[in-house]
Amino acid sequence: MSDSAANAKATLAVAFCFLANGVLARETWARERLEPFVGQGFEVRLPLVAPLSLVIGAGARIAEGNAPTAAIVTPGGVIGDSALADELRYLRRHLRPDVEEELSRFVGDVAAQRLASSARSFLQWQLDAVQRIGEALADYAVQERRALVRRAELADLAERIEELNRAIERLERRL
């Protein structure tokens, strides 16, 4: 372990760099694609945490740094129009780390499989809960509060208004 790694504080940026560099160490093609961008910086923005300022270092290793930001990486995608942003978009699409494989290096195969399965189940449970809450709120707004109108009711109202306009026009012609 190098002196800089031994003296590094345990921050989210250091953890992110450790995981990203672990994946890059096994994917030589990805490191080769990042090699031209040594010295360029990018930012990782995750929900509920401060942005991480990172830089592509020697050997295409990712490290903490304060280089000018050429791209911003978010859970929704990569923002920016630089060559580094384009490359990070490419890597995001094609570099798929195996989470279970990464975990198995630390906790073993069986525990990694169970942890990954539990994480997937937890995530599915959260997504299902969000969907159900959304449906319940929409149902409440439509049925109980009458704050929203269903499309069929709105179309019926528009048809009745049009019918009323035609009746008014006929009446005006008579007069």
Q: Based on Cα principal axes, name the global outline.
A: elongated
What number is the mean pLDDT?
A: 88
- The overall strand count is 5
Poorly predicted parts: none
Whole-number total of structural domains = 2
Largest sheet report = 5 strands, mixed
Element order, helices and strands?
Answer: HHHEEEEEHHHH
Strand order, biggest sheet?
A: 3-2-1-4-5
Radius of gyration: 27 Å
Number of helices: 7
Percent of residues in β-strands: 5-15%
| Secondary-structure content class | alpha+beta
Helix content: 55-70%
Alpha-carbon distance between the two ends: 96 Å
Which secondary structure elements does this structure contain, and how are they paired or packed?
Blueprint: H1 3-7, H2 12-26, H3 28-34, E1 41-44, E2 52-56, E3 62-64, E4 69-74, E5 77-79, H4 83-94, H5 99-107, H6 109-144, H7 151-174
Parallel strand pairs: 1-4
Antiparallel strand pairs: 1-2, 2-3, 4-5
What's the short story on this structure?
The chain is an alpha+beta fold and about 180 residues long.
What would you note in describing this structure?
- The protein is of the alpha+beta class and 175 residues long.
- It has two domains: 3-97, no CATH class; 108-174, no CATH class.
- The chain has seven helices and five strands; from the N terminus they run αααβββββαααα.
- A hairpin with a 7-residue loop joins strand 1 (41-44) and strand 2.
- The N and C termini lie far apart (96 Å).
Spell out the key features of this protein.
2 domains, 5-stranded mixed sheet, elongated, alpha+beta, 175 residues
